[in-house]
Every structure is written in C-alpha cells, then in structure tokens.
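User: Run a structure prediction on this.
Assistant: Running it now.
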Amino acid sequence: MSAPTSDARGLLTVVLHAHLPFIRHPEYRYHLEENWLYEACAATYLPLLDAFQRLQREGVRFRVTMSMSPPLLAMLQDGLLRNRTRQSLERLVRLGDQELQRTSGEMHQLARFYRERFGRLLELYDDLDGDLVAAYRALAEAGVLELITVGGTHGFQPTMREPAARRAQIRVAVDTHKVAFGRAPRGIWLPECGYAPGVDELLAEHGIEYFFVDSHGIDNAAPRPPHGPAAPVVLPSGVVAFARDAESSRQVWSADEGYPGDPVYRDFYRDIGFDLPLSVIGDFVHPDGIRVHTGFKYHRVTGKVDLADKLPYDPARAATRVVEHAADFLAKREAETARLGDSLGIRPLMVAPYDAELYGHWWFEGPAFLESLLRQTAARAGTVTTATPSEVLRELTPYPVDTVSPSSWGDGGYSAVWVDPSNDWIYRHQHHAERRMVELARQHKATRDPVLERALTQAARELLLLQSSDWAFILKGGTAMGYATSRVKAHVARFARLEREICAGPEHIDQSWLADLERRDNLFPDLDFRVYAQ
C-alpha cells in the first residue's frame, strides 16, 4: 500500500468490524437464527463489496480497514450455508416478482426498486460463485482494503481466567486468517474492544502489531498520552493501540445526532413480513408462520411516530441526503483536523470504527453513505485522507506508554454489557471448562490415539463456541434469549460429556455422537487441542 499523500493533514481510519456468531443447523431445513447470515449478506456484505469494487474500477483512491471474524469466515465459506444464502436471495427476487403483481402506484415503484436491487445482488453473488471471502481477499491484494482478524469465536478477553484460553482465541484467529487470506494478519479487533492487562503480550507472541480500544482506554493510559486518542500508543510489548474517535462515532451511532435517524431514510422496523397477511406472505417467512423481516420495507423513518403513521420511502430523496451527510461528515473531520492539529501540534488521527452490519442492515443507506464519503474524501485530497493502520504507523510515531486502561466499548465502557445479572451465570461454566480444558490438554498432549485426539479437539471447539461474547450480549439485550440460552447450555453439556468420556478412555468415546458434533459445528478443521497445553 502507498503512504498517505504528504499534503493531507488529517488521517481518517475507517474500520468496519464484520462478525456474526457461528450458526449452522444442517439438521433443519429452515432455522430462524440462521437467517442472520443471509440477511447480512443481502444487506451488508454484498452491498459493501459492490461499492468497494465500483470505487476500485473507477480508480478512486480509498482505504478501508475491515475485520472478518473466524466464525463469519467459516460460514461464508461453508458449502451448505453458501447454497442457502443463494436460495435466500432467490426468494427475495421471487418476492419482488410477487410484489410487482400485488402493488400499484407509489408502492409499485418501491416494489420495482427492491426487485431490481435484489436481482443485482443475486447476479453479483452468482458472478462470485458465492465466494465473498475470495472477493474481499482480492480487494486486500489490490491494496484498497486492509483485512484484520478477530478473536477466535469473538470471545471476550476480560472474562477469561486462563491465559491458555486467551491464547487459544488469538491463535485460532491468526491461523484462520492465514488460511482464508494467504497472509498473517497485522492487526486484530479484540471482541467488544475488550482489553485486559497482558492481552497485548499474547498478541505480540502471535505477530499481531496493533489492536483497537475505545477512547478511554488511551485517555486513561499510564503515563497519560499527551495527544489522547488522536495518535496511537505503543505498549512495552511493542504492540500498538489505536483508540476510537468519539466525534466521528457519535455522528453515526448517536440515537439523537446520528445520520441513520434522519426522517427521509428507510425505516428498519416496518416490513411487509409483519404488515401483510400470512396468506400473502406465507411463502417468504418461517414455515411455521413465524413472521420475519423480509427486506421489503416501504416506509421511511418519518420521525417519532407510531409504525402505522410512517410515510412512504423515497429512494431518490434518501440518495440525495446520503451525499449531503457524507459531505457533512467530511467537513466535520476537516474541522476536527484543524482543531487538533493546532492544539496538539501533530498530524491528527481519527479512527472511526463501526460494526459492519450497521452499514446496510440497520442503516439501509449506510453502504451508499460510505461510498460517497470515500469519493468526496478522494476528490478533496489535501485536508483529510483515508489511511489504514499500517499506513498510519508509517506516518506517525506511537507514543510509548506502560499500560492501556482495561476497557471495552458498549454501555459504560468497562465490560458492563457482558458481565451483568442477565448473563453472569455463564461464566462459572466457562471458567470450569477453561480450567478442565487446560488440564486435559496437558495430560494428553503426547497422545497419538486418533479417537482421543478428535474428542479433545471437539472439547476445545465446544469451549471456544461457549466463549462467544454474542450469547452474553443477546441475553443482556433481551432478544433471541431462548436461542442464546440454549446454545450456552448445549456447549456446556457437550463439553461435560466429552470430558467424562475422555477421562474414561478412548474406548468409552461415543464416535457416532462425536462425528455428529463435528458435522454440525464444522468450523476450525485444523484446530489442535494442544494450544491449551502451552
């Protein structure tokens, strides 16, 4: 990658964090939570890819950093899920055809808008032969995208007791990234930006050069960095920490100030999957009649009104507003650059990290906003330029600190979302499994019995899946609580049974049951349980 232009004063690092929990249910023809992947592909991963490829074709200079978690990579590369993703896109196209027959007037025009949109996305998916990972890899190899990894199963590092358990999450992440993208990751997105002392040393052990924290992680570092989040810091381990820029985040995330709440943008909650009678929509929701979001949403935010009072969506008005908001965002980054540059006397850095799924899934116009922002930034080069963390480190010298503050992003900023009365019951089971996994790995690290090795590896896989921070987040948020609870209990129970059978000896391992577990949760095919023996 080339370095940022020398006359550009401010460095803007846009970071998109792409992650979904590993959900794969081959035992069901249709599974409700499995839809999360298909919705994300149609709303976020394909539209973002389409925008990046268009910018690349047109020669627009841009740089974006994107994390892709190992569970997401596993699902995007799985043959069963890729086939089901295509089937989901085909259903959207068929629904569009049906809506063109059903609607008239203004709603007919919106139905045509969606039918054409989903038709293009299906064509793109087919052009890629369903291989989104290869397409993102091509963008990285072209130098416009810096791909980084994420903790193995999005395990929240501050809640792990065993150093070996923390190490395993990082090792799995690095190994998965190497296989998917043909190179080791330079950076990592610590799940939920969860930093705990000593994590950076494990990152250095695995060749990771940088990670991200929320702004207070650096504001409260020792010694206090003079430039705050406007410059990276380096820990004694040699690993660099980048902090989130609060202003750029607030413009997008804030419920009061954020762009997605603009009245002309598409409303997320009003969907024909809930509006239409089952006699009309039945073929496009859950086979049992459970209503779901279809992606056909004909209304705009409008304001703080009831869903029934939402006004019709106007894509042309929204497209105009996207350009205006991208210009506003850039103007504010230019003003921030001038203010920070004058007060701090440095070339300021603004790190703008977001969940990738915000762009497209939650904020329908998000991919178009990002594309417009990148276009406008490139056209006005000289004040602000987009740069990846690797480029930033060639431009700026990180300030040395002894410690970064333990921290997370999310409400409160100190792990409160993931350690809460709604979910703290998880951790006594997690800590027990961590301790026993370490003991089992050390006891059997020299084994060459193939059945025992498989059982130990599956126990490691169950622990990794148990550690996913998604379950605690879902329980705290109060959505899909039944599914999150069942997943936690399932992984605890499977680990406990594997532990008993391992301790009883290879001849007591139920190979049929073990094979079924391996078939269902088929991620990390190269996992070696011995990582827990270190």
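The chain has a mean pLDDT of 95.
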